[in-house]
Amino acid sequence: MAVKTRDALAVDWTNPPQHLARPTVVGSGPVTIAWLMPPPSAMSGGHHNLFRFIDFAEKAGHRCLIYFYTNTPIVVNIPDMKAMLDGSPAYPNLSAEMAMYDDDAGVDPSVQAIFATSWETAYPVYLDKSTARRFYFVQDFEPSFFPAGSEEILASNSYRFGFHGITAGGWLSRKLHDEFGMPTDHFDFAVDKETYFVTNNEPRNEVFFYARPVTPRRGFELGILGLQEFARRRPDVTINLAGWDISRWTVPFPHVNLSGLAISQLNDIYNRCAAGLVISATNMSLLPLELMASGVAPVVNDAPNNRLVSDNPYIEYVAPTPSAIADRLVEVLDRPDAAERSVKMSDSLNDVTWERSGGQFVEAFERAMRG
């Protein structure tokens, strides 16, 4: 499992240890924050967003330390990790020091706040002997990543550790508060309009599907069924699949397999498309807003986990059936005002900035840290 056996054995959230009883309060001024995370990769979207918010914390004057936690024998080479991060435009330049997390040594004695950033990292955060205040940066409901069973239960337990959750979007905040009793705040989803913007004001005759068969919550099979019906009705439309190399999967209609793409490639592809199909069975993806910024109508399965994140009127919420998905894609392609609508949907996001979301995050963190 992702969590170390010794950590899973040691945590008993029904009987909290004394060092968690009186967490640190910092009445004013900067805070030293430790962030525990699994090691990032160049293409890890969750880490891209996590590092964005560490950057916001640093810009607000806080000192950050990053610790890598993994239940593998691999030891992260810190210079190589920094070189990878520095070479990727998806990662901001941070001042944070980086190190492997040592279970026995724990975090640096100067640390006043500790963030868990995934379910497995919540275990060492709980067990660390520091009296630092505990937080949980939650980007998705991770128990749903697993079938019902041990990992699903252990992931669910992490929301019962008494941490203060700061979540991506309102659906997670409400769910964790209502179902697990966690104190929560949230920041809104946003989009970088310097990366995603409209360049094509002409009619578009392509569609996009965020296709990740290795990530069940992204509904690959349902999307393929909907696109199969759409392709039968509109064989003239180019269907682009991106997010994973799907050459080993059977796709029963003509398509373009774009595999994994660099962020710098996305805007040009999006600007060829009229609609983008994004299915999310847990927390909403960032893609719907990114698609909209490029003038693409996002077709998204209608569910609270999506609507409670964004109620933008240009998101095409649709019943999660193949026929309904195909119907909506055809409707989007056939709109006579599609080009004009592309510009309007992009303009609707002009104030939906990551800087605003970063301000929400910092304000929630500082309010909780002040005690």
Structure description:
It is built from 13 helices and 13 strands. By secondary structure, it is an alpha/beta fold. It has 2 domains: 5-190 and 354-369, Rossmann fold, CATH 3.40.50; 206-347, Rossmann fold (3-Layer(aba) Sandwich), CATH 3.40.50. Strands 3-2-1-4-5-6-7 form a 7-stranded parallel β-sheet, sandwiched between helices. A 6-stranded parallel β-sheet has the order 10-9-8-11-12-13, sandwiched between helices. Helix 3 links the parallel strand 2 and strand 3 (97-100). The protein is globular and about 65 Å long. The chain starts with a helix and ends with a helix. The model has no long low-confidence stretch (mean pLDDT 97).
Short description:
With 371 residues, this protein is α/β, with parallel strands linked by helices. It folds into two domains: 5-190 and 354-369, Rossmann fold, CATH 3.40.50; 206-347, 3-Layer(aba) Sandwich (Rossmann fold). It is built from 13 helices and 13 strands.
